[in-house]
Amino acid sequence: MSGRLVTEHISPELLLTYYKKLLELRLFEVKVQELYRNGRLPGFVHLYVGEEAVAVGVCSNLEAPDLVFSTHRGHGHALAKGVPSRIVLAELWGKATGSSGGRGGSMHMYAPEYGFMGTNGIVGAPIPLATGAALSAKMRKKRQVVVCFFGDGAVNSGSFHEAVNMGAVWNLPVVYVCENNLYATEMAFLRATKNTNVASRAAAYGLPGVTVDGQDVVAVHEVASEAIRRARDDGGPTLIECKTYRYVGHHEGDPGTDYRTREEVQQWKQKDPVKIAHKLLLDSGGADKSTLDAADLEVERLIDDAVEFAEKSPEPAADSVNDHVF
Amino acid sequence: MSEQGRVINYGDAGVEALREEMRRDASIVYIGQGIGPRGGNFRQTRGLWKEFGDDRLRDTGICELGATGAAIGAAMAGTRTVVDEVFLDFALEAITQIVQQAANISYMSNGKIKAPVVIRGAMGAVRNAGAHHSHTFYNWFANTPGLKVVLPSNPYDLKGLFKTALRDPGPVALIEHKSLYNAKCVVPEEEYLIPFGEARIVREGTDLTIVAMSRMVDLATKAAAVLEQEGISAEVIDPRTIVPLDRQRITDSIKKTGRLVVIDESPSSCSFAAELLAIAVEDCFDELQVPPQRINSLPVPNPFSPVLENQMIPSVDRIVAEVRRMMKSSRRKA
Which residue of B has its CA nearest to A146? Predict the structure, then answer.
């Protein structure tokens, strides 16, 4: 297999690592859903099921010091940036071993030691933050790149407009990645805006904008690769629109069918990012079935280990409640 | 504050603090509207652009939300920043970034991420700017865990507190008063820092304690001078930072005098004056000779008319009248 390429740029070995990461994101969220439904996890969770190719396709281009800013639907971004599933799940469980020691939870988890600058409970807010982090990177001259994920719900906010404009005028090393899953909570994008082509908005700010199939990890990887290279080479920001879909409701507990048809959900499931990568590996001869079965088993064990770790982890000490305010 | 030495104004004291710290720490970036070649709407960055250039004096368009978020994000990523809202009122455009992101980040990240950002803005009534340019909502910031709140009342304090803010793990809300920019006092040319959480006894006294913030310190001091001629000895205290608060020095004074009046340019309901009265009741109940009082601005939007605005905000006359009234009664023999 070595020496061959599955596509123009991607070797079978690399694609197999993307596949495993896609599966990790998927199985992680399925496990979170189960734990949440069984009343094991406190708080709220917004699951990333169906959108995995965006996080994996983008983050597979990043280096360890690069930074990622994420959203309320951010577990997948954390995992894709390399945050161990153990400490992500422990955070969802509110445990002391979680990435924020149980102080954050799903929408406020931070792992700067992995370049993960946080999920965020406020739609749009990470866009100015990521822009500022990119200013910092540029000032420090470290060739560090910042990636900012956000949904279609964020692009009608003032945060998007002000921050993308600043990123462009200051020529910052940031990549703005819109995960257009067609619904902001329950609001259909085409009911929220006249111009539903997010990438086309880039022209308004004078930066490149590109649309990509967000279900295809290879396609996302290649588009992001170019944008990240440009950012690293001081070529400025890019706006990438990934067309994607969440199979689940906005948050766990929302059936997600009041504002979407079951047919639409089923249609999108035909373009499943995990299955697409699996099929590409098999069809291209990049991996045989036994290799893929072994990969599946490896990822399942990883998730089982995360559950065991998080479950057995201690709660934070109640008298630590005042720590870290300042 | 020493009585002798070089005298400069409040605006220049802030510029000097910035210049010294930007020379000392090459990572500091200053972001805001009109702070580059123009030198700031209040001349609060005058001359700095010439020395530090576009890279470190980053003029923005009118986009407080984006600029403040960017300043916070840069701080989270390791670059110390100042974001200048110019008028504190304009921080409202960015309040979500200040409250939700900057103030929460240390806690939410279990102390792993700090945001060393100074959020700078000028507040208060001056020259009849009207309702959109005169707010004094520092009490809102003080009620936000994770945010330090600094209220310099004179040039000496501004320089020392600003320099401390620029070395603090942050975030710090540095709130100046617009009417103080031309106020002058002795400011040493040499380096000094003023620690947060250290109130200043502006004037010692024995009969009552007046606590005042920002521009109100000047009014309190003038009122104390009038009262002195009537044989009333007022102790004036300036907290300088309301988060952290020097509770000890303030309550020591109240216990000594048995009387407290707070002068606060914000409206009284849920104000910082209300907090200080609560502290007096909690810590000094047995020593209080009369109920503690507060003198706030009236609970109305800042009126444009000079007559109406003067009616709204605390005045020396109001302070003197209130103190005279308080001195007439006592619940126990002194």
Answer: B77
pLDDT by residue (tens digit) across A182-201?
999 999 999 999 999 999 99
Domain holding A293: CATH number?
3.40.50.970
Task: Report the alpha-carbon distance of residue B198 to residue B249 in Å, rounded.
Answer: 8
Give me the sheet containing B260-267, strands edge to edge. B200-203, B234-238, B208-212, B260-267, B293-297
| Mean pLDDT across chain B | 96
Residues in chain A: 326
| Best to test chain A binding among B76, B93, B149 (most A CBs inside 10 Å) | B76
Token pair 């709660």: residue:
A315
DSSP labels, B159-173: HHHHHHHTTSSS-EE
- Residue pairs between chains A and B whose CB atoms are closer than 8 Å: 142
Closest chain B C-alpha to A238 CA, distance in angstroms: 17
Q: What is the CATH number of domain B200-328?
A: 3.40.50.920
Terminal Cα-to-Cα distance of chain B (whole angstroms): 32
Domain assignment of residue A322, yes or no: no
Could you tell me the fold of the domain covering B7-186?
Rossmann fold (3.40.50)
Rg, Å, chain B Cα set: 20
CA distance A263 to chain B (A): 38
Contact A125 B101 (CB under 8 A): yes
Q: What is the distance in angstroms between the CA of the first residue and the CA of the last residue of chain A?
A: 53
User: Which residues of B are part of the catalytic machinery?
Assistant: 133
- Residue B29 confidence (pLDDT): 98
Q: In what order do the strands lie in the sheet with A174-180?
A: A67-69, A146-151, A174-180, A238-243, A209-213
Q: Determine the Cα–Cα distance for residues B153 and A85; give it in Å rounded to an integer.
A: 51
**CA gap A189, A197 in Å, rounded:** 10
- pLDDT tens for A21-77 read 999 999 999 999 999 999 999 999 999 999 999 999 999 999 999 999 999 999 999
pTM score, whole prediction: 0.96
* Cβ pair B71:A140 closer than 8 A: no
Confidence category of residue B1, pLDDT binned at 50, 70, 90: low
Q: Is B321 on the interface with A (CB under 8 A)?
A: no
Helix (H, G, I), strand (E, B) or coil at B186: strand
What residues in chain A have their Cβ under 8 A from chain B's Cβ atoms?
Answer: 67, 69, 99-101, 103-104, 108, 110-113, 117-118, 120-122, 125, 127-137, 139-140, 146, 158-159, 161-163, 165-166, 170, 323-326
Amino acid at the residue B248: Q
A-chain CB neighbours of B74 within 8 Å are: 132-133, 135-136, 139
ipTM of the complex: 0.96
**Residue A83 domain flag:** yes
Residue A212's domain comprises: 12-309
CA distance B276 to A154: 41
Distances (CA, A) of B227 to B201, B313, B314: 17, 20, 16
Q: Determine the pLDDT at residue A4.
A: 65
Q: Is residue A209 within 8 Å of residue A241, measured between CB atoms? A: yes
The number of folded domains in chain A is 1
Cis status, amide bond into B171, omega within 30 of 0: yes
Q: Which two tokens stand for residue A246?
A: 């969440």
Residue range(s) in chain B whose domain bears CATH number 3.40.50.970: 7-186
Element (H, E) at A296: helix A289-312
Question: Which of B323, B264, B324 shows the shortest CA–CA distance to B298?
Answer: B264
